[in-house]
Amino acid sequence: MKNKKITHGVLSIKLKVTILVTIFIILAVFVNFIYIFNASHTTLKTTTEDSLCNIVDSQCDYIEKAIEKVNASMSYMNGSEDMFVCVQANGERRELEVSAALKKYISQNNDYESITLVSAENGVAVSSTDEKLRMKDYSQEAFVQKILESKQPAQSNVFLSDTGEALISLGVPQQSHFDEEILTGVLFITIKVSLLADTISNLKVMDSDTSFAYLCDQSGTYIYHPDASLVGKSADIPIVKALAEKIKNGEQPETDVEENKIEGVSQYLAYSVSDVNDWIFCVGISEKEVLAPIEDMKKNAVLSSLIIIIVLSAFAYIFSSTISVPIKKVTSIVLKTSELDLTVDESYRKVMKQKDEVGEMARAIQKMRATFREMMHSISQSSEALSGSADCLRGIANTVNDNASDNLATTEELSVRMEDSARSTQMISEDIKKIEASTQLISQKAADGLELSATIMERAGGLKSTTQIANENTKVLYESVKAETAEALLQSRSVDKINELANTIMEIADETSLLSLNASIEAARAGEAGRGFAVVAGEIGHLAEQSSRTVVHITDIVEEVNLSVKKMEKCLTKILEFLDASVVKDYIQFIEMSEKYSQDATYVNHTMDNIDQSINKLNTTMLDISKAISEISISVSEVSEGVTNVSEKNADIVSMTDDTYKMVQQTIEYANSLKNIVDKFKLSN
Predict the structure, then answer these.
(1) I need a surface site. Which of 181, 458, 532, 606 has the fewest CB within 10 A?
(2) Helix (H) and strand (E) counts for the chain?
């Protein structure tokens, strides 16, 4: 069978792989480009900022050194004695010498405008190379005040000359020759601003024509600006204003770079504040100028990226052929299989030897085709065998149909007889259940009797135990009362001792009374001296009489106690006689009756237990009989149902035999149809 050409409405694998690889290349180049661009932008920005900071720092150092150089030369002149004397005399002494020295200094420095000496006492210029300035009052000049207060060099703000040229004054303090802590005057030089800005005007950043630089004093006034018309005016730049405000508040801003926007143009503006005079030096450059190399690099990178993408895409297209060609061969064999052509094909043997996924797929297809060929051969053979088996099955079905008809009649007769047996066993089962119910009732009554006899027996035992305990307690009580009574009678004899003590006390009272009488007689004989003794004798007599009365009272109480003890003795004797004669004998008789009652309860319990056991045995036997009858009934029912099922199944067999015969016919037809299907497959060349 001839292979058809493969046509699709979508892109081929070769083109898909090429496009996919190209997309990955573009993504990789784009990511790399973005990374390099950002890194370059950051690096260039950092480098530019560092360069700007270095420029402003170095320029500030240059200006500071230039000012220090001028200050040093003025300090040298300040040390002359002529200047000291002139200032001290307010210009009235040695003014000519000082004026000559100042003019000589100016002649040696042609770039300087003038030099002036001011008295610290009144702030008046005592000498100057410019006659217009001599005797001028400088006491309100800010830089002069600052020098006098700080005793350090200082500079004035920018001011314009008569010709409109920007000038600035640099001043140093003059110290007293007698005390260095006392200032006697100020010497200052007026110079053109351009002298300090000579290097600023030629300053360029990165050789850019758009770079610029300007110098401002601490208040933000331009000392130098590329536009000369702005010199002496306040800078209208937010960054400079903010720096001037910080300086005014006593802060010292660090060198830094900030982005500034003027008329919509972005700039990098670097600034540095002088440590000597707080002047602000700024250098700036256009951001566009700084980033110009980045833009050039961007264009070059885009061009090189396009070249790389084209080259790599071409390479990917060529490389994709190594994937698409084997896949095409595998696809052709798949199409051949779809057309039921299973003949051996050697055209993709080379592809099968590959170690990649395509080779795996080719080997799997080859294995599938071989399996299909084997299956088709097996189906063909099975179809032929199926036709022969169907013929045999047709004869067997006829025989089974005849036998099933005979079995059907027999099972119907057997079913009727089994139904009669089932009804008889059902009646017997119902009678057994009635007997079982009666037996269970008797068993329940016997169990109740047994439980009652056990209760009686338990109560008899409890009564006997209680009686024995009471008897023992009574005996203990009897012995205890008897012993305690004897002891109490014995202790009551101690009352007689109280009588003896009372008699003794009575005798002592009599003797005391006699002694009191003798004492009274002797006191009367003594007269006035024995009066106190007579009082004591009287008290002793009274005490003797009171003791006699107390003894009489004690004697009466003892007689009452003896009388009570004798009565209590008689009562206790009667109680002991009653306990011994009546209570103990009654408890003994009660124990004997409890014993007999317990024996009778034990006999009743034993008898009821025997009856209960007999009833339980009878009940068990009836249950076994009932269970056996039930099982027989169930068995008969099951047999009856089984016979009925057999009868129904025989009827089904007869019906199914006809169906089987029809299915045999269909099987033969299916076998022929299966053979026709197998014939459609091309299994060999």
Answers:
(1) 181
(2) 14, 11
Whole-angstrom Cα distance, residue 117 to residue 127? 5
* CATH number for the domain harbouring residue 78: 3.30.450.20
How many angstroms separate the CA atoms of 213 and 166, rounded?
Answer: 17
Q: Residue 268 falls within a domain, yes or no?
A: yes
As for how many domains the chain has, the answer is 2
Q: Cβ(205)–Cβ(278) under 8 Å?
A: no
Which residues, at least 6 apart from 183, have a Cβ–Cβ distance to it below 8 Å? 120, 147, 148, 151, 173, 174, 175, 176
- Whole-number Å distance between alpha carbons of 354 and 360: 8
Sorted by sequence, the CB contacts under 8 Å of residue 440 that are 6+ apart come out as: 619
Tokens 């042609």 belong to: 110
Backbone angles phi, psi at 140, to 5 degrees: -100, 0
Domain assignment present for 451 = yes
Distance CA(153)–CA(74), nearest Å, equals 10
Establish how many alpha carbons lie within 13 A of residue 119's alpha carbon, considering only the half-sphere containing its beta carbon.
19
Q: How far is CA 285 from the centre of its chain?
A: 53
The reply to whether 314 falls in a domain is no
Both tokens of residue 549? 């009365």
Q: Which amino acid is at 593?
A: M
Contacts of 139 (CB under 8 A, 6+ apart): 122, 123, 124, 145
Q: Which two tokens stand for residue 64?
A: 């500071």
Q: Please count the residues of the chain.
A: 685
In a domain, 360, yes or no: no
Q: Mutual orientation of helices 81-88 and 95-108 as an angle, nearest 10°?
A: 130
Taking only the tens place, the pLDDT of each residue in 341-384 is 767 777 667 777 777 777 777 788 778 877 877 777 777 777 77
* SS3 state of residue 186: strand
Render pLDDT for 21-41 as a digit per residue (tens, 0 to 9): 788 888 888 888 788 878 877
Q: Which domain holds residue 590?
A: 437-679
DSSP-assigned states of every residue in 343-369? S---TTHHHHT-SSHHHHHHHHHHHHH
Enter the tokens of residue 332: 């052709």
* Cα–Cα dist 654/649, whole Å: 8
| Structure token digits, residue 476 | 């203990």
> Which two structure tokens, joined as six digits, stand for 569?
């003795």
Q: Would the pLDDT of 494 be above 70?
A: no
List of long-range contacts for 395-402, beta carbons under 8 Å, 24+ apart: 397/657, 397/660, 397/661, 397/664, 398/657, 398/661, 400/653, 400/657, 401/653, 401/654, 401/657, 401/658
